[in-house]
Specification:
Blueprint lengths: L8 E6 L8 E7 L2 E7 L11 H5 L14 E4 L2 E4 L2 H19 L4 E4 L6 H15 L4 E2 L7 H10 L17 E5 L3 H4 L1 H12 L3 E5 L5 H5 L2 E3 L6 H14 L5 H7 E2 L1 H8 L4 H8 L3 H13 L3 E5 L1 H4 L4 H14 L9 E4 L6 H6 L16 H10 L13 H6 L7 E5 L3 H4 L3 H9 L3 E6 L11 E4 L8 E4 L4 E5 L12 H11 L9 H11 L8 H6 L2 E2 L23 E2 L18 E6 L17 H4 L4 E4 L1 H7 L6 E5 L4 E8 L7 E5 L27 E7 L2
Parallel strand pairs: 6-7, 6-14, 8-9, 8-12, 9-10, 11-20, 12-13, 14-15, 15-16, 21-25, 22-24
Antiparallel strand pairs: 1-2, 2-3, 4-5, 4-16, 17-18, 18-19, 21-26, 23-24, 23-26
Bound molecules: iron/sulfur cluster.
Iron/sulfur cluster binds next to α1 and α6.
Length: 682
């Protein structure tokens, strides 16, 4: 901090960036956040990554939206809250009247609090009358939620970070953890240094891959073959946990029959990993005392994303490596509150706590609590479906805290679709690339300006505390939603965020015991079933959430778009340590953009030679859908034939190239593999 210590107020709160959920103190002087210092966080201790430590400058950035805006003749003009809300009510009302409630779609946000997501879900379902609500979890862990919920009965991380040191075998698949979840990455590094066997499955040579005992540098999109291959060895060697399989699972025989053909030699042909290595890793996993698997988008962002998750879920059950301390499957959720926004029902088919909208009893329960005659039973549209229907069945959208113009695949098409809407509301803290398309922009308050809770990736519900007053005329998102709902004729008012959580708890068994009063004393991990329930450290002890764990027989399928003569490279995308998601916050901190000012394309040395490019040369990367220019970085992180960059720099809008082909089950797009060509510029 820059202020004298006695002038500085410290407010303990939760990091607004990644799903690790570190806690820190915002240092406040004269109503301004002037620094971040460590506190004793329950998840992170005193550790913070560069984003948490230095990424606060966006809070007072001059670009912050400070007043509602209404577009007139193609230009935004400042408006009062009354004018903006009146226009929203009029436009949404007339779309609803003419075309019905399902002509409207809402995107909620993994960046805002649980309480705000809960109210967005209520606004969609009880006030507008549609289940057309989704958010960017569709682009990250929709396959996890779909896959693990079907296999185990719950889509969440089965274990906690505190259990990492107890795992003698750690398998990391498709996660560049030291960049995307740095504090968790540090814990994994520490475990490896203390003797845990570390295995990394990744087409890229990440920092953890360099540290690992085994780096399985598989060909992109061949995960199912690999996991089936590991299972094949374990069954052939008689190492499966028969007691666990017999007592706690079902559908084993079909799975066993399917993996029979995935011998190590067969799998070597698909993945490029030596048969002998596959054997060694399989034996290591099966014989480990406690084995933990971690995965992220390298598993999920494929047209077979849900099947990838099934293949991991199968392996755990086969060896009984789940339902106990330090053993299980741990999908690391990306955004600060993406676990919470799913928990709060910002999804087209569930209310809070994954209570399905298709069950009449649930609809009746929520209708009674929300004081409406009935709630819609028709399953809503996902993000991709909503965007695809713009101008067709979808006439109006309300987007809170999301930036699909940068984050979603085939971004040229996304922009084209948004233009077709009759009416678009965007609620955000900056005038994002998506907000530019809006008819009305509402200024939300940042995490520093409001109370609420975030749920981190290991199901820890933690307090977000107000440190300063909202900037300018901005308002906390929950207050804005209340204003809009009330103006639409559905009176919605709460004295505080705590009151909203009380309502969530009353309707949601897994959050039933959670209240702000308890959270003041310490965070709670759901399921937390009653006021005296201590919360749950690891899941599926003694029994899976769905009863028996379910095996799924899944086959390898190739990615939707593979290289050919015209587009000879595979492009894969991801994230960088210094930036967050579409960069709206981290590119405005006065610090992180100095550490990492621009984006580049990772190219292998042999490919650089072939292309005739040196480090720093600019290239044009083109797919069948679009093109961008970017500087080259020659690196051994990628193998020949593979190039990599992040989607986090608006000046390198790489999602204009990516493939919108989707997993038929979870509707996640294949962001990890698309075919591109590369030419030197000039
Ligand atoms: Fe924030 Fe994640 Fe970094 Fe922790 S690891 S400080 S939660 S960005």
């Amino acid at each position: 901090g820059k202020g004298r210590r006695w002038e500085v107020k410290k407010v303990t709160t939760t990091c607004p960036y990644c799903g690790v959920g570190c806690q820190f103190d915002l240092n406040v002087k004269n109503g301004k956040v002037i620094g971040v210092t460590s506190t004793d966080g329950e998840v992170n201790g005193r550790a913070l990554c560069v984003k948490g430590r230095f990424g606060y400058g966006f809070i007072h950035h001059p670009d912050r939206l400070t007043t509602p805006l209404i577009k007139k003749d193609g230009k935004f003009v400042e408006a009062t809250w009354d004018e903006a809300v009146d226009l929203i009510v009029k436009k949404i009302g007339s779309i609803k009247e003419k075309c019905g409630p399902d002509a409207l779609g809402l995107l909620s946000s993994a960046r805002v609090t649980n309480e705000e997501n809960y109210l967005m879900n209520k606004l969609a379902r009880a006030v507008i009358g549609t289940n057309n609500i989704d958010h960017c979890a569709r682009l990250c862990h929709a396959p996890t939620v779909a896959g693990m919920a079907t296999a185990y009965g719950s889509g969440a991380m089965t274990n906690s970070f505190a259990e990492i040191p107890g795992a003698d075998f750690i398998l990391i698949s498709g996660t560049n953890t030291t960049d995307t979840h740095p504090v968790a990455g540090a814990m994994i590094k520490q475990a490896a240094r203390n003797g845990s066997t570390l295995v990394v499955v990744d087409p890229r040579k990440t920092e953890l891959a360099k540290l690992a005992k085994y780096h399985l540098q598989i060909k992109s999109g061949t995960d199912i073959a690999l996991f089936n291959g590991l299972a094949n060895v374990i069954i052939a060697e008689g190492l499966c946990d028969k007691e666990f399989v017999n007592n706690r699972t079902e559908d084993f025989e079909a799975f066993k029959a399917t993996v029979a053909k995935y011998t190590p030699e067969y799998v070597e042909g698909i993945t490029g990993i030596r048969a002998e290595t596959i054997r060694e890793v399989a034996l290591g996993y099966a014989k480990a005392k406690n084995a933990s698997i971690f995965f992220t988008m390298g598993i999920t962002q494929h047209i077979c994303g849900t099947h990838n998750v099934f293949s991991i879920a199968n392996l755990c059950m086969l060896c009984g490596q789940i339902g106990k301390e330090s053993s299980g499957v741990n999908p690391l959720r990306g955004q600060n509150n993406v676990q919470g926004s799913c928990d709060m029902g910002a999804l087209p088919v569930v209310y809070t706590g994954y209570q399905s909208i298709t069950v009449e009893e649930n609809r009746k329960k929520f209708a009674a609590a929300w004081n409406v005659q009935e709630l819609p039973a028709k399953i809503g549209l996902t993000v991709g479906e909503l965007l695809g229907e713009c101008g067709k069945s979808i006439k109006g959208m309300y987007i809170m805290g999301e930036n699909p113009v940068i984050s979603d695949p085939d971004a040229n098409q996304v922009m084209h679709e948004l233009k077709k809407l009759d009416f678009l509301v965007v609620q955000d803290i900056f005038l994002t690339e998506t907000a530019q398309f809006a008819d009305v922009v509402l200024p939300g308050a940042s995490f520093a300006e409001k109370d609420g809770t975030f749920t981190n990736t290991e199901r820890h519900v933690q307090l977000v505390r107000k440190a300063i007053e909202p900037i300018g005329n901005s308002k906390p998102d929950w207050e804005i939603i209340c204003m809009v709902a009330t103006a639409m004729g559905y009176p919605m008012s709460y004295g505080s965020a705590a009151e909203i959580m009380d309502e969530v708890a009353s309707l949601t068994p897994s959050y039933a015991g959670i209240s702000f009063a308890r959270l003041e004393k310490g965070s709670l991990q759901w399921p937390c079933l009653s006021a005296d329930h201590p919360g749950t450290k690891f899941l599926h002890s003694g029994k899976f959430a769905r009863g028996l764990g379910k095996f799924h027989a899944v086959e390898h399928i190739p990615p939707d778009e593979l290289p050919d003569n015209e587009y000879p490279f595979i492009l894969s995308t991801g994230r960088r340590r210094y930036h967050y998601h579409t960069g709206t916050m981290t590119q405005r901190t006065g610090a992180l953009e100095v550490f990492y000012p621009t984006e580049y394309l990772e190219v292998s040395c042999p490919d650089a030679e072939k292309l005739g490019v040196c480090d720093g040369d600019r290239v044009r990367v083109a797919s069948r859908r679009g093109q961008v220019e970017v500087a080259v970085k020659i690196t051994d992180t990628v193998v020949p034939g593979l190039v990599f960059t992040s989607f986090q720099y608006p000046d390198v809008p790489i999602n204009r190239l990516t493939n919108p082909a989707r997993d038929p089950i979870s509707k996640i797009p294949d962001l990890k593999v698309c075919a591109v060509k590369i030419d030197k510029v000039g």
